[in-house]
Amino acid sequence: MYDVIVIGSGPGGYVAAIRAAQLGMKTAIIEKYSTLGGTCLNVGCIPSKALLDSSEHYHNAAHTFKTHGINLSNLKVDLKQMISRKDDVVKQNVDGIQFLMKKNKIDVHHGMGSFVDKNTIKVTKEDGKSEEIQGKNIIIATGSKPASLPFIKLDKDRVITSTEALKMKEIPKHLIVIGGGVIGMELGSVYGRMGAKVSVVEFMDSLIPSMDKTMGKELQKSLKKLGFEFYLKHKVTSVENKGKEVIVKAENGKGETIEIKGDYVLVSIGRKPYTEGLNAEAAGVKLNDRGQVEVNEHLQTSASHIYAIGDVVKGAMLAHKAEEEGTFVAETIAGQKPHINYNLIPGVVYTWPEVASVGYTEEQLKEKGIKYKSGKFPFMASGRARASMDTDGLVKVLADAETDEILGVHMIGPRTADMIAEAVVAMEYRASAEDIARMSHAHPTYTEAFKEACLAATDNRALHI
Ligand SMILES: Cc1cc2nc3c(=O)[nH]c(=O)nc-3n(C[C@H](O)[C@H](O)[C@H](O)COP(=O)(O)OP(=O)(O)OC[C@H]3O[C@@H](n4cnc5c(N)ncnc54)[C@H](O)[C@@H]3O)c2cc1C
């Protein structure tokens, strides 16, 4: 009898297992694939960032090195090597998780986990053999899978998801991306930087629609420079694979149908919770109408000793959100009283420029009727950004009109994925814009743009603009 059994070894599951083991609980983890780490390490965060880094190097070599005074000849992409380096990076990371399981004395069971009853899980291995294990507490961390539209046949050859986009055999000539969200913009950038024409079809009126509107607008400007073509407010009505050609039809706001021809279509309209084969009903675990495991504020399911975390439950589908929930549940089981501030989970898009955001968007503040003031600072005015030729983008700070407390920070620019951490710390400690404005930021750094935006929010006091 284990104290804790975790089903799924993504960032939610493996973190929950480590924290449970740290707290002295006898812990097992079940993973249906041969490698640990889930979507994030195998086909998500890590491989996409590996390819984003490689393609960015190529893009810079092709487009900005000359201005830096570096001349290259015969520059070309070796896609096979690029994908193989990405595979190495994935391997290092998944092996790292295997090591962490061993170090923390967590039993790893490879196979498909399904509930037999509320304390028993059957683990079915690839060869069909199975074993049963029992746990006092069970954590469902089975994650998510790419979503599609009912009329789209994902043939995984020309009509692909993010998983196939991470192991292409050729650079598309014309990649049509359905969905202007994070995954589509990141993977579109990978191939756009290496010469593919990229067309984005998005149903909403802006890119990355869940983020502050200014971010979507700025990102669109930058990606346009990269050659992206946008069809916003377009509803895809059909996708056809004609062998070497794919045809996407979409309807614009006026009801007219447009046709886009390309050689690959990336369907990146979001992800859906994954509970197939889990047999959750056998344990009395309820799903909601969106297919997510229903949980209360302690992340308990309808069976109180069974918890669920990460992409399979409500909330942002992000690795670090899943990790926080993993820790939260392990500590709850151990009798502690943990807390997660969901409003302060940052969101990042690893395009170039990067987009990073935390707290309320301007649209949310308006909707809530909260009086706010806004301060902006463009990277164009940053000495550090001029030095690296990364002048696209800006930092926008939203602060309470009366108290000056920072309510939201939205950044698009160089290295904002890392910069956003300062905003999270500031907001967790309920800093005012003036608090940050009065702190010394090393010069020259991109972080000065955050200080300047805080100065701008504090009585329009930005110094360098
Ligand atoms: C291309 C891409 C890029 C991304 N980039 C980022 C990023 O940069 N930053 C970020 O925060 N997020 C990113 N994400 C999202 C991130 O990957 C997910 O939010 C995160 O992986 C969710 O973690 P999880 O633990 O809930 O589930 P998952 O990582 O999906 O792991 C679930 C695991 O459970 C296993 N499993 C499922 N059912 C069973 C069963 N019955 N028995 C045994 N095992 C089972 C699955 O095989 C899987 O390994 C990206 C996603 C994609 C697709």
From TrEMBL:
Disulfide-linked positions: C40-C45
Taxonomy, superkingdom: Bacteria
Pfam families: Pyr_redox_2, Pyr_redox_dim
Binding site for FAD: K49, G113, T142, G143, S144, D311, M317, L318, A319, H320
Cofactor(s) demanded: FAD
Origin species: Algoriphagus ornithinivorans
FAD/NAD(P)-binding domain mapped to chain residues: 2-326
GO annotation (BP), single: 2-oxoglutarate metabolic process
Catalytic activity: N(6)-[(R)-dihydrolipoyl]-L-lysyl-[protein] + NAD(+) = N(6)-[(R)-lipoyl]-L-lysyl-[protein] + NADH + H(+)
Similarity field: Belongs to the class-I pyridine nucleotide-disulfide oxidoreductase family.
SUPFAM superfamilies: FAD/NAD(P)-binding domain (SSF51905), FAD/NAD-linked reductases, dimerisation (C-terminal) domain (SSF55424)
Domain Pyridine nucleotide-disulphide oxidoreductase dimerisation: 345-453
GO CC entries: cytoplasm
Keywords from the UniProt entry: Disulfide bond, FAD, Flavoprotein, NAD, Nucleotide-binding, Oxidoreductase, Redox-active center
Entry's EC annotation: 1.8.1.4
Note: The active site is a redox-active disulfide bond.
Binding-site residues for NAD(+), renumbered to this chain: G179, G180, G181, V182, I183, G184, M185, E186, E202, G270
Organism taxonomic ancestry: Bacteria, Pseudomonadati, Bacteroidota, Cytophagia, Cytophagales
Coiled-coil boundaries: none
Active site: H443 (proton acceptor)
The name this protein goes by in its record: Dihydrolipoyl dehydrogenase
